[in-house]
Specification:
The complex is a heterodimer.
Chain A: E1 5-7, E2 10-13, E3 19-24, E4 31-38, E5 42-50, E6 53-57, E7 64-68, E8 74-78, E9 87-94, E10 103-104, E11 108-112
Parallel strand pairs in A: 2-11
Antiparallel strand pairs in A: 1-3, 3-8, 4-5, 4-9, 5-6, 7-8, 9-10, 9-11
Chain B: E1 3-7, E2 10-14, E3 19-26, E4 33-38, E5 44-50, E6 56-58, E7 64-68, E8 73-78, E9 87-94, E10 100-102, E11 106-111
Parallel strand pairs in B: 2-11
Antiparallel strand pairs in B: 1-3, 3-8, 4-5, 4-9, 6-7, 7-8, 9-10, 9-11
Amino acid sequence: DSGVTQTPKHLITATGQRVTLRCSPRSGDLSVYWYQQSLDQGLQFLIQYYNGEERAKGNILERFSAQQFPDLHSELNLSSLELGDSALYFCASSTSGRAGELFFGEGSRLTVL
Amino acid sequence: AQSVTQLGSHVSVSEGALVLLRCNYSSSVPPYLFWYVQYPNQGLQLLLKYTSAATLVKGINGFEAEFKKSETSFHLTKPSAHMSDAAEYFCAVMDSSYKLIFGSGTRLLVRP
């Protein structure tokens, strides 16, 4: 158990819909990262937050957005969903001063039909 | 820009045999390199990391990796494979904004 909790574990929805994925980082971790894992693209970095502020942005589509709340949990919002958005979305957290040492949740598997 | 390339999407070894998973990096500055493992239906877990303190890095579960600047490599090895080592392994490099860039992954199959 990494200590990072992601909900829901599985989600099936239709094209054009909007979903929200939730992540609770390990206790005390201020950094939260979101990654997308798919067969064709591999593991792609989406976005990072540190203590509520956006720290780095990767290949995140404009239809996607994220935020980190004062209690440090984070949400990834995916809208106008397309078939190609079907993937495993991982959240990870890390401790200050331990850059690169990420603790991953078990992921949220999104299927868009 | 930093990047890593993993050679071989699948590697198959017999139980008890040497495991060698290859990773080459591209970086304009001394890199911070990592190996992560993903077991089926789980998130990634850190195996080991290189931060320039020592070229041979020991990790969990008997794995180690050697940083070779002349070859721009950071290959992962384990002397004797166990059935429980079957998983997908990812090499990663940390970029200038401290985020990890992952390779495409290598799936390790262990034959009885």
